[in-house]
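pasting for the record
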Amino acid sequence: MQSNQYQPYQPYQAITGDYVRGKKHLQLTIGIIQQGEVSYFQHRTSSRGSKVPGNDMLYEIGSITKVFTSILLQACAEDGYISLGSPISKYLEPLRSNPYWDQISLQHLAAHTSGLPRLAANMKPRNRFNPFADYTEERMLAFLTNYIGENKIGSYEYSNLGFGLLGHILCRITGCTYDELLYKYITGPLHMPNTSVHLSTEQEQRLAMGFASTGKRVPHWDLSVHEGAGGIKSSAADMITFLQSNLHARQNSAIPRYLQAIHSPVSMNGTDRYIGWVLEKQPEYEYLWHNGGTYGFSSYTAFDLQNDTGVIVLSNYCYASPFILDILVGQLLSKWRKPGSRMTIDEIGKQLMNALRASP
């Protein structure tokens, strides 16, 4: 049962207290599923967007987008658009001159085992706080055409470039935009009206402002050709719907079966690899999760199939990764201030999952 009423914030204040400290512009929304019951918790230190219910406010979800792209990969395979094991060279003509791409499959990209680096070496953004905005398809292909990384194939290396390429290929093969693919396979069937890369005018009014860890306001990200790596904006309500669908995919035949296709690992070169999700193993239980971070937002989501629990945590403050960049920029501007707490959204999410398992 889903409730639009917010529960008292106090039950999780001990978990979130360190994170919220010192963030004067914070919009923090938490959604929780526990044995079918849904609750939302909210903490605000800013009046901006205060009239928008926390579960309807939109946030950049960053790399949680990769879970959606992985589901789209499975859906496109089921519909015959692509073959998971076929080489990349089959789908992008400009790469056929490089034999490296005869060894890399779409599944390699989704498992972060393609040998591609986190980012392309020819990324030189005009705006360092919106680093993907001017990175075009032409620049991506220019880098990939001559790329050689055979010695890294099969080894895990997290790659935004790889997922940007994966989303780009899926769009080219199907003739759809990324948002059109999202709607066709995920947000339409699951009734998630506030989850997309590009927003309507009304949705933009509900999109939270983003802030760096120093409290500096930063622009929203434009992902360009990297949409499949981190371009989605969503709300807590939509993400709870997404988690509910994952939790009940096996029991409900109306939920597309390609959602559960990435709940289990696949064998690649003799090693089990997860596609999209990450496995968290505890001594007595395990769950699937993913996080996300842009320069103005951070997010975390997880679900435990065995215990029918799940969490989504959305914040309009950046993930820890831009921390050093914030300091360097501040020093250059001679306006450096000590950032607030470095507690991450991941820590909140993991503690919430442990608390849900421990509660009756």
